[in-house]
Amino acid sequence: MSDHHDHHHHHHHHDRSGLTRNQNLVFGALEEAQGPLTAYTILDKLRVEGFRAPLQVYRALEKLVEMGMVHRLESLNAFVACRHPSCEDHASTAFAICETCGSVTEFADEEVSKRLSGWAKGEGFVLHKTVIELRGLCCTCKDAAAAQ
Predict the structure, then answer these.
(1) CA-CA distance, 99 to 10, in Å (whole number)?
(2) Residue 48 above 70 pLDDT?
(3) Which position among 4, 7, 18, 61 has the lowest Cβ density within 10 Å, counted as fewest Cβ atoms?
């Protein structure tokens, strides 16, 4: 059974009480975004808040990723707010990235996680985290392409 989280529609609430001002602003920018953002896009959005250096954004992102509130999409070198704070297991997360509109759907599949950690164990590989990125077309863009 897989658990789907659409980055466009679900707004779960993370506990933001322990965040610094910068972390809060960076998380807010990601939460409001329609898709993944790069650190430089976040910096541009937060200039009005007094952000000047990419390092301010990177430091906040690093902490937010560590806390499981933000995920880094390796292939895009961009970040998204985690849409399922209740999910304890961030060891294996998958993202479906639409190559047309840029939407990102986050999901976790326990079976896939088990198979991958089983393989790692069998190979004597110490697994720290697994990020699976699927590239293709979301259902909206697929339907639009089919209609043309």
Answers:
(1) 21
(2) yes
(3) 18
Q: Does the 84-147 domain belong in CATH 3.40.50.10730? A: no
Binding residues: 98, 101, 138, 141
Going by the annotation, the residues of the binding site for Zn(2+) are 98, 101, 138, 141
Q: Enumerate residues 6+ apart whose C-beta is below 8 A from 41.
A: 78
Beta-bridge partner residues of 98: 136
CATH class of 18-82: mainly alpha
Q: Give the pair of three-digit tokens for residue 101.
A: 């509109």
What is the tens place of the pLDDT at every residue in 82-112?
Answer: 877 655 555 678 899 999 998 999 888 888 8
**In this structure, how many other beta carbons lie within 10 angstroms of the beta carbon of residue 125?**
11
**Where would I find the H helices in 3-138?**
21-32, 39-46, 54-66, 110-123
CA distances from 126 to 115, 116, 121, 141 (A): 14, 11, 7, 38
